[in-house]
Design goal:
- Helices cover about 35% and strands about 15% of the residues.
- By secondary structure, the protein is α+β, with helices and mostly antiparallel strands.
- Bound molecules: zinc ion.
- Zinc ion binds near residues 83, 94, 96, 97 and 104.
Length: about 150
């Protein structure tokens, strides 16, 4: 049996509760056996909607300096997993993905503080993606790979 936590006394206006009650009674085909069941269903739908809307918070910027940044990744265990991303003169490098173009780096390039550091390095002559237009960088052909190399995708 599912563990139930009882939250008593969630106040409902009488008219509102009666409207729900009426809907439930007049429409048994809806399958609600109680007002509580209805409220739970309604709340779950809204919750799922909002969870989707706010689900983008998969990554968080933990700290950054001239040499790199640490990204908190909420999609990996243990949650959050701390991911080290390095800034190097020729690329940005993710220690976890062993890649220069993973989602951690894509995310990092959206953080204002990191953008500033990257722009500073670019001024110093580093060959890094322009944080204001990273898509151009992702889209540029990797000259170290042959033409058969798969496209980067989205
Ligand atoms: Zn990565």
């Amino acid at each position: 049996m599912k563990k139930m936590v009882e939250y008593k006394n969630i106040p409902l206006k009488k008219e509102f509760a009666e409207r729900i009650q009426r809907l439930i009674e007049q429409n048994p085909d809806l399958g609600f056996r109680s007002l509580t069941q209805f409220i739970e269903d309604a709340a779950r739908r809204r919750l799922e909607e909002l969870e989707k809307e706010y689900a983008y918070k998969l990554y968080e910027h933990f700290n950054a300096n001239e040499d790199g940044v640490i990204i908190k990744d909420w999609t990996l265990e243990p949650k959050p997993r701390y991911i080290q991303v390095y800034f190097r003169p020729d690329k940005i490098w993710c220690e976890y993905c062993l890649s220069d173009r993973c989602n951690h780096i894509r995310y990092a390039l959206t953080v204002p503080k990191i953008k500033e550091i990257i722009k500073k390095h670019i001024k110093e002559g580093w060959k890094l993606p322009d944080p204001d237009n990273p898509e151009e960088w992702w889209g540029c052909p990797d000259l170290n790979r042959g033409p058969e190399s798969p496209s980067l995708g989205a």
